[in-house]
Amino acid sequence: MPTPYQTSIGSFTRKSTFFWAGVGATVGLANLWQFPYLASLHGGGLFILIYLGCLLLVTLPIMVTESTVGRYARHGIVLAMDGFVRSAKVSRAWVLAGRLSVIAAFLVLSFTAVFGAIALAYVFFGALGRFSGADEIEAGWVLSHLVSDPEEYRLFMAWHALFMMLVIWVSVQGVVRGVERTLRVVVPFTLLLMLGLFALSAWHGRVDSAVSQILAMHPEDVTFESVRAALFQAFFTLGLGMGVWTIFGAYTAVGTSLKRSLLAVVLIDTLVAIVAGMMMFSVAADGGGLLDGERGFGLLFISLPVTLGQLPASQFVISGVFLMVVLIVWTTSLALMEPIVGWFREWTGAPRGWSALLIGALAWFAGLGTLLSFNIWAGERLAGGTLFRWVELLTGGLLIPTVAILISVFFGWKLTRSLSRRILGEGPGLFLATWYWVMRLVVPVVVLFIGVQYMVSSLAYLCDSGSEGLWCGQPSVLTEIEGQRLDDTPGDNDAVQSGPILRPPSEDELDTPARKSPQEPASDRRAPKQDEILYHSV
User: Are 304 and 280 in contact (CB under 8 A)?
Assistant: First the structure.
């Protein structure tokens, strides 16, 4: 490999920027709509300890690998892999790992921006008082009117375009003036806003109830499903397999303590998830436990606004909460843009501004597939799934696990130990030895398990949705492999229903008539259910 050098794709000017960029990339919707639910269901504080163990043993080594590869090569994931392939004199097929990671980042960005558009609209809906004193039926009507009304899809597209313009606006300004400055301001502000909202929830809610559900030890609730839930959450919440950490590693300023920063990012990400859970459950307990058993779309866009709508000055509170959500999704989207823009610039030599504009426009256009899958294309299905469902399955079940496996095998088996140590840089001997064997033996097996389970669950859900695919010959077998029933039979164990794999927003469930009367019975309300988000690494 040539001597590492600083490429023209850019670099950060301050050592601490890598930390703030990492926090912005990892703190996502999963911290809000998934982690608190899992912790409350699977043992509280014990689940958090298991989750931290999974982070440190499985996902942190992958983060370290991707980041140090970028720092050593000073390139994005594609050119970095190309250089290491040439150095190791192995098949050029290994470069496929870099290319697949860029595709994964693009697809995830395309539907992450759609979620950001919903949150952006909710900031204004909250300020206008649309949730003040509302019940679940009315909140479900607001969501359905925005997302699934065939007559209003152009308005949804406008919100989507506005959110994507915010992402593009930062990206076109460059790594320093755009990405670095924004992340250094927005990420700390988001954390401060979250602490302020937590203080408000503690003042008006019941912190003791939140502590009981999130932090207290409940060993009787810990099962094998708890370990699996923690493993899946740890893998999908950190933005692995999409080239994000490689490009941030390439941007690092000289003297940045990479490993310490990564460990701090992991701990902050976990702390944010705990604070978010405490905030939501303390308010819910004071309002009658409305969030019990909720997660995903149903938690974030229906139950949470209804709960907050009972508080004093609810308009300001709801707007503040969804402003926080918008900032979280915004920074996640900025992180997802970087490996794509970096690859395009290294491939074509195009200027930063034009590259960001082109990639952003393509991501907005690709996101229309997800957006329209919730309304006018909801009836267009291939083997039981809409376009969004298949995109989600491709990214979460195939691309991201495949990239993680290829990277772990390549750097664990194909490179010499001396080169691996040079890539990793200085560190305790125990850490280097542990990293070596974890990347060789643990990560490939664990990630393969995650990918297979993800695919099985997705395909089983398609069978349950009426798919006639070949895999549906014995849908009950697929369901049993996943370990959960996909029907809503009364008496099913909630712990079985709430495995770590969640499903995307059901287009059928979102397809509520826009003029549905708020007075109709709650049983007739067709809104996203608690187990309908599968991909949760946003």
Answer: yes
